[in-house]
Amino acid sequence: MATESRIAFSRQGWYIRNVEIPRAALTADEVAREAEFFSYGTNDLTQTALGISRDDYVKFSKRYEDLKIFKADPFAVLDQEGVGKLVDMGIKLGRQTRPDLEVGICGEHGGESSSVEFCCRVGMDYVSCSAYRVPIARLAAAQAAISGEKTETMRTVWRFFTAEWQTSPHLCGHFAGRFTRTS
């Protein structure tokens, strides 16, 4: 089994795997044999997937912007074409092994509009972010819900938007909003 991500137990006694490096996402089917919950640490996953440290990126980000290497700062907006593929693949692989796998995102991407919409679209159960980003995440969920698409995913986003936000028992004191899915 992949050992490259941290293991934790929540207050509910769940076995949680923090998915923070590409190999953990690529072997998610194996990891899900033991883990009941995946928490994607997208800040660390972004650094390891792109091979760029967050601290060093600021030194050359202007050049990358000029060359249009990234659509936006990948540490502010989730890189859906690269890192997002790892996340999506990991969710699908994990749920092939454990269909009831709980999945969420931990980090500042959970409070950025397009990242919140992405999380819902790929089937995450929650997003978490710092308290000051909660209004942004709720607004992003509401905008996705009224975007005109009447799929179950968008109805789920609306339930997420109206849900109470609370300190997450699974994460490092971040505030979490849960997507509620109907069967």
Low-confidence parts: 1-11, 161-174
Give average pLDDT, whole number: 78
Overall shape: it is globular
Helix and strand pattern: EEHHEHHHEHEHHEE
Determine the structural class based on helices, strands and strand pairing. Answer: alpha/beta
Rounded to the nearest angstrom, the distance between the terminal CA atoms is 31 Å
Note the total helix count.
8
Q: Tally the beta strands.
A: 7
- How large is the radius of gyration? 16 Å
Q: What composes the largest sheet? A: 7 strands, mixed
Work out the strand percent: 15-25%
Provide the helix percentage. Answer: 40-55%
- Neighbour order of strands in the largest sheet: 1-2-3-4-5-7-6
Oligomer: single chain
Question: Can you give keywords for this protein?
Answer:
183 residues, alpha/beta, seven-stranded mixed sheet, globular
Fold and architecture overview:
Helix content is 43%, strand content 15%. The chain is α/β, with parallel strands linked by helices and 183 residues long. Helix 6 packs across helix 7 and helix 7 runs antiparallel to helix 8. It has eight helices and seven strands. The protein has a seven-stranded mixed sheet. The N terminus is likely disordered. The longest helix is centred in the middle third of the chain and has 15 residues.
SSE topology:
Elements: E1 7-9, E2 15-19, H1 22-26, H2 28-31, E3 37-41, H3 42-50, H4 54-67, H5 83-97, E4 102-106, H6 113-121, E5 126-129, H7 134-145, H8 152-162, E6 166-167, E7 175-178
Parallel strand pairs: 2-3, 3-4, 4-5
Antiparallel strand pairs: 1-2, 5-7, 6-7
Helix pairs in contact: 6-7, 7-8
